[in-house]
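Sanity check record (used in CI):
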Amino acid sequence: MGNITSCCDFCFHSRRSQPYEPLLLENEREAVADLLQYLENRTTTNFFSGEPLTALTTLSFSDNVDLQRSAALAFAEITEKEVRPVGRDTLDPILFLLSSHDTEVQRAASAALGNLAVNTDNKLLIVKLGGLEPLIRQMLSPNVEVQCNAVGCVTNLATHDDNKTKIAKSGALVPLTRLARSKDMRVQRNATGALLNMTHSDENRQQLVNAGAIPVLVTLLNSQDTDVQYYCTTALSNIAVDGSNRKKLAQSEPKLVTSLVQLMDSPSLKVQCQAALALRNLASDEKYQLEIVKADGLQPLLRLLQSTYLPLILSSAACVRNVSIHPQNESPIIESGFLQPLINLLSFKDNEEVQCHAISTLRNLAASSEKNKLAIVKAGAVHSIKELVLEVPMNVQSEMTACVAVLALSDDLKGQLLEMGICEVLIPLTNSPSSEVQGNSAAALGNLSSKDGRTATDDYSAFNDVWDKPEGGMHQYLHRFLSSPDATFQHIAVWTIVQLLESGDPQLMSNIRNSGLLVPNVRELAQSRSVTPTSSVGGTPRSHHSQSHSYQETETGEGQGEIQQLARKILDFVDGDEPVLPASSTPSQVQPGSSVGHASSVSGADHEELRKSVREAFGGSSRGYQ
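Expected output for Vacuolar protein 8:
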């Protein structure tokens, strides 16, 4: 910005050199003289009130273009050095100058307004006083400097949530989208920055899509300017939050994934991070989960996952979690070398979200393949879980116990998991304050107790070792669940007891038969005929190969009936001498019913979350979305 005093001097020296001096109104002459004096003492002068502001206002509303230029330039330089909340008496003259037909006046006035728009209060007042309309007109100016300043001002105004919808409805999005293609990099940066600021609400994102912003933003991913790349990548990431927009992107932008994968190798850390986040949002859809792998996105994600920079770790962990949802991606992810880095992140205590993403990914990778389950255990995942699970935050505990429950579905791994002492940490967690952690831990214990094709060599001594400890052991855990008012917990307990009896282990059978805690509760459940109905459990996202006997297919009445059937089966053993034989109606893995008993202290919302969590833990084929 040029020096204001010299500019004012130039205006009036040039007049004196003419054959006659243009006539100025008396108040304009006084205003010029006053302004020159104030500018000499600018460091101690407040130009936003009193006589200095009066002088600027007089020049602004003059019919003399030279005086308007002087006022506009003065406002621009003053606001560049000092920004404070201002009132209407300051903004009115600047907004008037915006409507000038003179390019120099437009340029300086929009620069002044953009400077003031850095202040939160000013952002709101500028829009309230009608500042958007003249700014939109200036965005359409053929002058690049005017375009740049006008767009920059709109970018600042758009950082306030209360302004976003007003800007979207003002007609500004179409010219902003057009200016994003400008050959002038300053204009392009300001325009893409403004578009980004407009992507933080559903309604505004839809307005942007309607204004044709998507193809422009995708094209500019290939810009050589880091700021433009960042603005466009972040804007597309926000747009991809909406399922309808992902569908449009899939139909119209075939190069989007390839461009984002390439940007994960950008020299700029912030661009790398936003590219991974954009891919994470896209990977909410099955099509993109496959496409990211096909576009060679795994190696850049692995590199970011092993970074020491938290935002990169977090964005890549979130992305690979979603990519791992698709069954076809399980083996490619493991073969690309993700297992050890993911296991290492389980102990990433600086960020709970990173831990959750890492363990949820491991659970997804274990969902449908025995080979993958074996690889995950061999890589040390269960050892890390056992070491960490009692100390990590509750959300991480829920994910870890769900992962163990999925791994425990493998008959080939049950013995190994038991030998590792996993029950020692699962049993305390069945008494967690979190119903999800309780349910997932019980699911894991139940799956460990169950086995298809039992043989005489099956070793159930691990359950005897933890019958009374830690924290009351299996005995107290089963008692708590049997006496719970929640039918989900009741069902888990009776099913698990049946599995332990079917093992044929003499010590376990004796422990159960002689228990003064378990048997009375089992008798009560065997006689119970009433249960408070609840709404049916809604489905959770599942892969295409979900088990046919899934938890969600057990209706309320059927669940209660199965509890009675299992309880009576236990009593047949307790009251008689015959061993418990496997029943053909009993599924090979725990399938707790969806009913909940009355008088429960757990809210309906908690029940729903519990049933979803336990269903995923037992079913093994449900996958964790983010």
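The radius of gyration is 34 Å. If this sentence no longer matches the regenerated tokens, the check is flagged for review.
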